[in-house]
Amino acid sequence: LQVFLVEKAGRRSLFLAGLMGMLISAVAMTVGLVLLSQFAWMSYVSMVAIFLFVIFFEVGPGPIPWFIVAELFSQGPRPAAIAIAGFCNWACNFIVGMCFQYIADLCGPYVFVIFAALLLVFFLFAYFKVPETKGKSFEEIAAAFRRKKHLAKAMTELEDLARQQ
């Protein structure tokens, strides 16, 4: 199902939607946990937020990075890039799994604020830096990166000229 959804909606848009949905879910979990002592029904808000968090993860940040990593690199460096991405993925999973209980004890009901802040950073990075790779060859994606690099270099040179005058 995910493969068809990715081909229809596009990698970048699903990734961004998943990150934003996870961010909203993390905020809802925080609100639910903070207000749980005042309103018993907030436990349902927290449960729904947890389910939505998992659903949004499965729509975006779960599978999409594997598509994008495979499409951003040519055949030569692709295995190394996928290995590094896999290592980073599992290392972060391990760190979260090992540290979550300590962080939860330290932060109490505000533990998911940390996740919300990180998700906001990830969303902004993806919005500004991650290209759409749907229907594009590696050469087209590489050319787009080169254009951005040359444009940034040209803008820097123009700024330098403006300062000199």
UniProtKB/TrEMBL annotation:
InterPro entries: GLUT, MFS_dom, MFS_sugar_transport-like, MFS_trans_sf, Sugar/inositol_transpt
Transmembrane segments: 14-35, 41-59, 80-104, 110-128
One record GO biological process: D-glucose import
Keyword Membrane: yes
Cellular compartments per GO CC: brush border; plasma membrane
Signal peptide, first to last residue: none
Any one GO MF annotation of this record: D-glucose transmembrane transporter activity
Highest taxon in the source lineage: Eukaryota
UniProt membrane topology term: Multi-pass membrane protein
UniProt key word Membrane: yes
Pfam families listed in its UniProt record: Sugar_tr
Protein location: Membrane
Domain Major facilitator superfamily (MFS) profile: 1-134
Assigned keywords, A-Z: Membrane, Transmembrane, Transmembrane helix
Predominant cellular place of this UniProt entry's protein: membrane
PANTHER family (UniProt xref): SOLUTE CARRIER FAMILY 2, SOLUTE CARRIER FAMILY 2, FACILITATED GLUCOSE TRANSPORTER MEMBER 2
Name recorded for this polypeptide: GTR2 protein
Species whose genome carries this gene: Nyctiprogne leucopyga
Lineage: Eukaryota, Metazoa, Chordata, Craniata, Vertebrata
